[in-house]
Amino acid sequence: xxxQDSLPLLLGARGAVSRGAFRVRxxxxxxxxxxxxxxxxxxxxxxxxxxxxxxxxxxxxxxxxVLPQAPQLGALKDTGVDAVLTDRPEAFAGLETLTxxxxxxxxxxxxxxxDATVVEFFTSGSSGTPKRVPKAYAQLRLxxxxxxxxxxxxxxxxxxxxxxxxxxxxxxxxxxxxxLSYGRPIHxxxxxxxxxxxxxxxxxxxxIVSSPAFLSRLHAYEELPPARQAAAVFSSGAPLGDxxxxxxxxxxxxxxxxxxxxxxxxxxxxxxxxxxxxxAWWRPIAGxxxxxxxxxxxxRLWARSGCTFEQDWMPSGDLxxxxxxxxxxxxxxxxxxxxxxxxxxxxSEMRAQLLEHPWVAEARLLLxxxxxQQLGAVVVLKPEGRAVLEKDGKLxxxxxxxxxxxxxxxxxxxxxxxxxxxxxxxxxxxxxxQARLLALFEAQP
Length: 445
Description:
- This protein is an alpha/beta fold.
- 29% of the residues lie in helices and 28% in strands.
- It is built from 12 helices and 24 strands.
- The protein has a 10-stranded mixed sheet, sandwiched between helices. Strands 6-5-3-4-7-8 form a 6-stranded mixed sheet.
- Strand 16 and strand 17 form a beta hairpin.
- Helix 4 crosses helix 5.
- The chain is globular and about 70 Å long.
- The model has no long low-confidence stretch (mean pLDDT 89).
């Protein structure tokens, strides 16, 4: 036991924290929390190690844990918290805070977690409005157990490093709770550049917890840790593009394991392109049931597991079709199917048509509210398209893209407003939220 206690668990610029020292950290936090009257706590720690310690310490004693949409004071508005457990108390002036600091006066006794502890996530999804998603701590534990059954043998004792924040469900599970639960060392700082991942890994076997936004921007693959050192590369938040998936496998030598799900449903399915089979197909994670049900949007995917936000079956936000082997292919967002000018139109389908154009690298379509609703298109151009934009101007470029869409759609369904940013306005998880897209149309006609 003493030998296990001495093994490093947290790694970072400030040195290593051993397993034993981490248990003392959790016990000390629990003792201070037990002496505090607050019962509804926001957990906002920039340091992933302190975040993990805070999560384990808070998960007991009839407390509720609130994980705001962003690790900032403004994100706590209307969450009704009594106090904040944080390593940045200066950022939460006006609120009761408990500072995450080392304390050596706690025993090494194990601190247990209460499965009934409520952990509240806040997510905006596509609407831009924060949505409260409460989960029991038991659901997080069950999801971690499912991840270990699925990939634990592959990961071994590899160190976990991430390019995503830890205050969302994906980062919390993959970067913090999963490795803590099974004793894998964690690289505490978030890696913002490929070279930081390489430096973090050193000569170790590593697990990279990333996102489509990060993986799609990679070009110098030699800046990453060597592929032979990567026990696994995970990606979640949105589907990884075909080109990025191909480049990872062919230019670097390792395929990404994509995990599909949401805060509400938990993980639903996964895929990893082997270079031969179609990338479209997702395989349900062990312990998850999935099926399609028809509604006004089409064939919507439903999921059932012990990790869903609601009891029993829960609808996803996506349309899907199933193959004969139990795998499924996503068919676009259910909320992308809308009535416009008394016509039914799928924005995902229209997006797919735009992506076939040789000038288009990425695209999003949306309904712009106003006295008269209009369709808008946000298009990221390939170099060829950017050259047309610079030579002929925006109006000429958008007219040519409109002409391409008119080959399939009636003129009244073709977007009237167009924007051509250098990149999509993604958040830290690689998701393009509706509010960020709408903002592109607010500043100019």
